[in-house]
Fold this protein.
Amino acid sequence: MIPSQTDVIVPMTLDYMDQLITRQKPYECRRYRISPSVKRIWFYLTAPHSCIAYICEIDPITARNDSPSMEETSFSYTLKSVWRIWKSLGLREMKKNYGLKVAPRGLMYVPTCILDAVPWREQQCLWKLENKPRRVVTTPQPKPTLKRKVTREDSLSFIDGVHHKLLKMEHGPRITRMTSDDRMDVDS
């Protein structure tokens, strides 16, 4: 069982994996540095799922953050794509067919026999970075004058307006014109 130098297995809970799938979190943070030779992370979903179900292409290390606010994470890796494995690899199957002794509990390199059996490019691509939808662009709002204090309701109504436009967006909106309130309208 020869390990690959370009692919690693990392354990992940389903709730965190969902954030990567839905692009709520476009990066993966780790306490340790992943080798620059690694191009893909294979995510092992922990119990009760106990299987490898997703593969993510990554860019080399994006940032190292020494800030105490990041708690224990210090290395950030931008995700380039997320792929769902058509037939996930269960723990029993990995032990029986691919020589794994125990469930992945930390970073480990993917055995080449798994790479041969599960070609990652033949799996279901959920998203790629170049297909990422564009965001609504807003111009900076004027600073409040001394005559009128900005209230919490003003902020909430602006956020609601932007949120409404974001909910209507699908498949890469196109910016068409500027409106009188200095925000760009977006075709839905």
In short: Strands lie at 3-12, 27-30, 40-45, 51-58, 63-64, 75-90, 108-111, 124-128, 175-178, 184-186.
